[in-house]
Amino acid sequence: xxxxxxxxxxxxxxxxxxxxxxxxxxxxxxxxxxxxxxxxxxxxxxxxxxxxxxxxxxxxxxxxxxxxxxxxxxxxxxxxxxxxxxxxxxxxxxxxxxxxxxxxxxxxxxxxxxxxxxxxxxxxxxxxxxxxxxxxxxxxxxxxxxxx
Length: 148
Known about the structure:
Helices cover 45% and strands 24% of the residues. By secondary structure, the chain is an alpha/beta fold.
């Protein structure tokens, strides 16, 4: 079983880095897990430029996804799931024979539509807005509890 997290941008805050390291260290003892970062584009602020930013980041994400992977995109408009449903989703993907589960975390503007279309499932942790850097930590914590 391999788990990959593809995330837009880098983590700058030390407290988030420490939390991510905490869960990665625990998970790496049992699972093959990695975080792949793709470059975040600067948002110039116009609607047209925002779509271009989403497309550029989205193309970078899609380039990193293997065809054989089960993809779960974290999107605010996705289906809200409980921790138990989240765990079931991961286990179901591996039970279906997928060798890798890929989680996608977009940048500050979200996730490009074609990435959400490529995803096998779009989920939301909440209708509330969280910084995408913090979402990475929350995701790792949920993966840890899902795979205990």
